[in-house]
Design brief:
Bound molecules: zinc ion
CATH class of the largest domain: Alpha Beta
CATH architecture of the largest domain: 4-Layer Sandwich
Number of strands: 16
CATH topology of the largest domain: Purple Acid Phosphatase, chain A, domain 2
Shape: elongated
Number of helices: 10
Length: 359
């Protein structure tokens, strides 16, 4: 056997495999889970394709406990920018308060969020600190942010067992109809089946899921156990409609974009609770631009009047799989390279060990 021939064959195979993996990772041609802007413009008048904004309020627990004026500042800023930014919805990611038994904290949270009542549609959900932990109590959550508070709003969709612990809202903007869930920390299978049924009732709506614990911040780009459970039972089976999952709980900023049956599902973690002044008012601005079929994420603190612009705080939700899904092809590729080298060196070793007749 010829060593050079073996080496060349090994290299060629590695190169082919690399190209295949790169193509898989970057070049997949898929059908997006919404109409393109061109398709939409044929159905809707261009005036309907206006840009619009959703504001995300991650864990406010320490504001409710110690810095209520920062929470106030967030909702006041939303009111003042409602028209200029076309803010159509505000979503809270849970842990509204730090201690579910503290009336003072609920009072503070209520003062801040009440500013939105009658002004901007919004949804809340209970995190572990709001009483959704195993030994917690959701009485205060539902006393302050219960079913009756929202049930008369035109945009309120409903709630699991008519209790606002798990709820959904409906809104339309930019030529699309949306359904947004607010699902509690550690939802039971029953709750996830209920949410699945709700999606089935609205087959033409684009779906956003807000929840508390979903993307795991401590390990790079992975879902938590609760997140995996929600992915398996709610998000993945409805990936043709669910395009965005928002979560907090872990003090990080992480983006996971998964590709499921040709649909991109963006799953974002944002939580700033351990920063100076318990978060300094940082929130997320999600800007939808239907005309160019683009969704952009910005991180902003109205309290500091500052944007955070590093790559995990400000980005476009492009149709690319993130590292999480990228790692598998890369790992296989590296394993293949190492295996090729080992095989080549082993064969070479045995060939060179054989005594040559002419020497
Ligand atoms: Zn939490």
């Amino acid at each position: 056997m010829n060593f050079k021939l073996i080496f060349k064959t090994g290299s060629l195979l590695s190169l082919c495999f690399a190209c295949l993996m790169l193509n898989l990772a970057l070049g997949i041609d898929v059908v997006p889970n919404s109409m393109t802007s061109v398709e939409k413009s044929m159905i809707y008048p261009m005036s309907d394709l206006e840009n619009f904004t959703i504001i995300v309020l991650p864990d406010t627990q320490y504001y409710s406990e110690n810095y209520p004026w920062i929470f106030d500042n967030q909702t006041q800023w939303i009111l003042e920018n409602k028209e200029s930014r076309n803010i159509v919805f505000v979503t809270h990611l849970g842990d509204v308060v730090d201690h579910w038994w503290s009336i003072e904290e609920w009072d503070n949270a209520n003062t801040s969020l009440s500013k939105l009542d009658g002004n901007v549609p919004y949804g809340v959900l209970p995190g572990n600190h709001d009483g959704a932990e195993p030994n917690g109590d959701l009485t205060n959550y539902n006393n302050y942010f219960g079913f009756d508070r929202f049930n008369n709003e035109s945009w309120y969709g409903g709630a699991y067992k008519n209790i606002n612990t798990n709820n959904y809202q409906l809104f339309s903007a930019g030529g699309d109809d949306y359904l947004i869930f607010h699902i509690q920390f550690n939802p039971s299978d029953d709750i996830l089946f209920w949410a699945s049924d709700v999606i089935d009732q609205y087959p033409n709506r684009r779906v956003i899921v807000s929840t508390h614990n979903y993307v795991h911040g401590y390990y790079s780009n992975s879902r938590s156990g609760m997140g995996d459970n929600m992915w398996d039972k709610l998000v993945k089976p409805h990936a043709d409609q669910v395009f965005l999952v928002l979560s907090g709980h872990y003090e990080y900023e992480v983006r996971i974009t998964s590709l499921e049956d040709g649909n991109f599902v963006h799953q974002l973690l944002s939580d700033y609770q351990n920063r100076a002044d318990s978060g300094n008012g940082w929130l997320r601005i999600i800007e939808f631009s239907p005309n160019i079929d683009e969704i952009s994420i910005k991180t902003y603190s109205p309290y500091l009047n500052k944007y955070e612009t590093d790559s995990n705080s400000q980005f476009i939700l492009d149709k690319k799989i993130t590292e999480n899904d990228f790692m598998l092809p890369i790992s296989i590729f590296l394993a293949w390279i190492i295996l090729s080298i080992v095989i080549t060196l082993t064969i070479r070793y045995f060939i060179l060990r054989r005594p040559r007749k002419n020497q």
